[in-house]
Amino acid sequence: MKTVLYCRVSTLDQNVDHQLTQAHQNGFKPDVVLADHGVSGVSTRLCERPEGRRLFDILRDGDILVVRWIDRLGRNYQDVTDTVREFIRRGIRIETVINRMSFDGTTTDPMKQAIHDSLIAFMAATAQAQAEVTKEAQKAGIAHAQAHDDGTKYRGRKPTFTCDQYAIVRELLNQGVGVSAVARTTGLKRQSVYRIMAEPEKQRAALRAWYPMEYESRVIGTTLPNSVENT
Question: What is the pLDDT of residues 114-140, one digit of tens each?
Answer without folding.
Answer: 666 776 776 666 666 666 666 666 666
